[in-house]
Design a protein that fits this description.
With about 180 residues, the protein is an alpha/beta fold. It is about 45% helix and about 15% strand. Strands 3-4-2-1-5-6 form a 6-stranded mixed beta sheet, with helices on both faces. Strand 5, helix 5 and strand 6 form a beta-alpha-beta unit. InterPro entries: YacP-like.
């Protein structure tokens, strides 16, 4: 569970995939696994930059599959609901469980009914489109603060002081083993 100073972002995965243009394009081309992966990748830098924790919820409503949970390498939790449960229901349950905690909860979905329900649990609502804008803005801010790297030397000469490098060059050119 998140600590009192944490913001937890709950994301309705398929709802967001349907609203974000590049992910929607993948989904329409029957590349849903790739769309899910790209969603988590897109959220990774955003939540790290904002200092959030995130959980993406995918429903298995019409699929006879058991619920399971994964954690991405970036630390984002991924929940797959059990057969018969929607992502909305799962998110509502999580909001109800977290309403008495001191953490801030934001729910990303464009489902208007969900907006009203999660508001009853003191969670904040953000539309999928608004989250897209926030992710894009965070990426721009990250690019601006990344230090510009100067072209670095590669090879041993970047690790040696000038005197040692000169001695090695003399040895290399002489064809003999060093005597000192």
């Amino acid at each position: 569970m998140p600590s009192s100073s944490t913001t937890l972002l709950l994301v309705d995965g398929y709802n967001v995939i349907g609203a974000w243009p590049p992910l929607n394009k993948l989904a329409r081309r029957s590349l849903m696994e790739l769309a899910r992966l790209r969603l988590v990748e897109s959220l990774a830098n955003y939540v790290a930059f904002r200092g959030y924790q995130a959980t993406v919820v995918y429903d298995s409503y019409a699929q006879p599959t058991p619920a399971h949970q994964e954690r991405s390498p970036s630390g984002i939790d991924i929940l797959y609901t059990p057969y018969g449960e929607t992502a909305d229901t799962c998110i509502e349950r999580l909001c109800a469980q977290l309403q008495w905690d001191e953490c801030r909860v934001r729910v990303a979905t464009s489902d208007r009914v969900q907006q009203l329900v999660i508001g009853g649990y003191d969670a904040e609502w953000v539309s999928a489109e608004q989250l897209w804008e926030e992710v894009q803005q965070a990426q721009q801010q990250i690019r601006r603060i990344k230090p510009k790297r100067s072209p670095s030397k590669r090879g041993i000469d970047s690790y040696l002081d000038a005197e040692t490098l000169a001695r090695l060059n003399r040895w290399r050119l002489s064809g003999q083993a060093p005597t000192d």
